Each structure stands twice: as C-alpha cells, then as structure tokens.
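In this section we turn from sequence analysis to structure. A common task in structural bioinformatics is to predict how a protein folds when a small molecule is present, because the ligand can shape the pocket around it. The inputs are simple: the amino acid sequence and a SMILES string for the ligand, here fe (ii) ion. Study the lines below before reading on.
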Amino acid sequence: MSSMENLQDAFAGESQANRKYLAFAKIAEQDGMAQVAKLFRAAAEAETIHAHAHLRAMGGIKSTAENLEAAIEGEGFEFKDMYPKMLTQAQEEGVKPAEISFKNALAVEEIHHGMYSKALEAVKAGNDLPETSLYVCPVCGNTVEGSAPDKCPICNVAGDKFAPVA
Ligand SMILES: [Fe+2]
Ligand SMILES: [Fe+2]
C-alpha cells in the first residue's frame, strides 16, 4: 500500500476511534465512572488530532468552497447510492436495527446535501450563509434551521430533545 492509502486507512481508523470513545465515555458516565469517562474523552480528543493530521497530510483539507464541494459529493453518494443499497439489503435480510439506522441516515444526508449546496452558492458569491440557529435531532441526526420542530419529522422524537449547535 502507498503512504496515501495508509493515510486514508489511518484517517478512517482514528475517526472511528474518536466516535467510539465518545460513545464509551457516555456509558462510563452512566456507570458512575467519571474518571474513566474523562480518559475516554481525552483519548477521543487525541484521536481527532491524529485524524486531522492524517487528513491534512493527504491534502484533504482545502478552501471552504472546495471543502463544501467535497461535502456535497460525500453526502450525495451516501443518500443516492450507498444508503439506498444498504437499506434494501437490510430489509431483505430482515435486520431491523440496521434498517432503522440506514433509513435515518439516508433521510438526513439528503438534508445535509441541500444545506451544503446552498452554502456553496453563498460562498461562490463571496458570502457567508445568512445568520440562523441550527438544531440537531439526538435520535436520527435531523438537522434543522431556525427553530426545533414540535416533533422530528424523520424519527418522531419530541422537538425539545433537539440540541442547538454552537
Ligand atoms: Fe450528513
Ligand atoms: Fe429525529
């Protein structure tokens, strides 16, 4: 494997470790192990630093316009190609948790694709997006502008569970 391929693999691995450790930290917190939770969060932060260093080393971080193009391409692939296939297979195999997870992600990636596309138009015109609040559904990841809905149109969770984005 080339060093570029190694960087890709290492980036994927470190990115996964970051999200796993944050999930593990929440469980450690629930288990009353605050210091173990802190260790998971510290390692998660370090893995993010490694992931970003690998991504930088492979030239994966560019201008905001180019980064938006990469984001649009990634979200487009996910909602048009990757998740539809995965969803169909999960349905055929009767793997319900996978079906729900893929269905939620598919719906939200389409929303991200639209939001990123609007952002790219603004950036190409030399502007930032208009100022607004953003909220994320803690169950399905639905991402909404302005204010949280009464209930999530994708997963039905109560709107007051939505988290504002800083
Ligand atoms: Fe997305
Ligand atoms: Fe949701």
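The first strand starts at residue 134 and ends at 136. As an exercise, try to locate the residues that line the fe (ii) ion site and compare them with your own expectations.
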